[in-house]
Amino acid sequence: MAPYYTRCPPRGRVSALGRPCGTDMKRLIIVYHTMTGAAEQLATAAHVAARDEAGCSTDLLTAAKAGFADVLAADGYLFVTPENLATMAGRMKDFFDRIYYDVLDKINGRPYAAIIAAGTDGEGAARQIQRIATGLRLKEVAPPIVVRNGAQTPEQIMAPKQVPEVDLTRARELGAALAAGLASGVF
């Protein structure tokens, strides 16, 4: 993996990639998109748990606002998206489209994981993220978590969601594990 920066400004300043100089702090970013609230609840749960890791800073970013500089400045990633029509949400795909070529070959080997908020499947979105991450040469460090709510009708699909506590716990555990793995150098 490439160093955070080739030349560090004086201690206490921030490098061109937004990292504090003179620290070993790792950075996890959680990039998400939501339509009915489920993916946001899962991303927030992971973020809250990850923030407890002293050796890792964690940022929660919407897919619409996250950019290539955020990806370059991070040591690891958690992608959280709803599944729409057997693929990841369009806004999440837009995020990958916008950052892909700017980060290609600059983030090789960095760890990632994914959480999918789905109706009854979720596997299509998980496979799509895995293919993109493979192209970016990222390292999957946990199998995708797929949270299924069972929605089948248009009304059920578009209704606001409340994620069950058991699934929020899974998201918290993944967020905490990613941050701990980054902070300890496991990943």
Q: What is the H-and-E element order?
A: EHEHEEHEHEEHH
Strand fraction equals: 15-25%
Biggest beta sheet attributes: 7 strands, mixed
Number of helices: 6
Structural class: alpha/beta
What portion of residues is helical? 25-40%
What separation lies between the terminal Cα atoms?
A: 11 Å
Q: Determine the mean pLDDT.
A: 90
What low-confidence regions span 5 or more consecutive residues with pLDDT below 50? 1-17
Shape by Cα distribution: globular
Give the C-alpha Rg: 16 Å
Query: How many strand units?
Result: 7
Written account of the structure:
The protein is α/β, with parallel strands linked by helices. It has six helices and seven strands, in the order βαβαββαβαββαα. Strands 1, 2, 3, 4, 5, 6 and 7 form a seven-stranded mixed sheet that branches. α1 (38-50) crosses α6. It is globular, with a radius of gyration of 16 Å. The termini are close together.
List the helices and strands and how they pair.
Layout: E1 26-32, H1 38-50, E2 56-62, H2 68-72, E3 76-84, E4 87-88, H3 90-103, E5 111-118, H4 123-135, E6 139-140, E7 145-148, H5 154-158, H6 165-184
Parallel strand pairs: 1-2, 1-3, 3-5, 5-6, 5-7
Antiparallel strand pairs: 3-4
Helix pairs in contact: 1-6
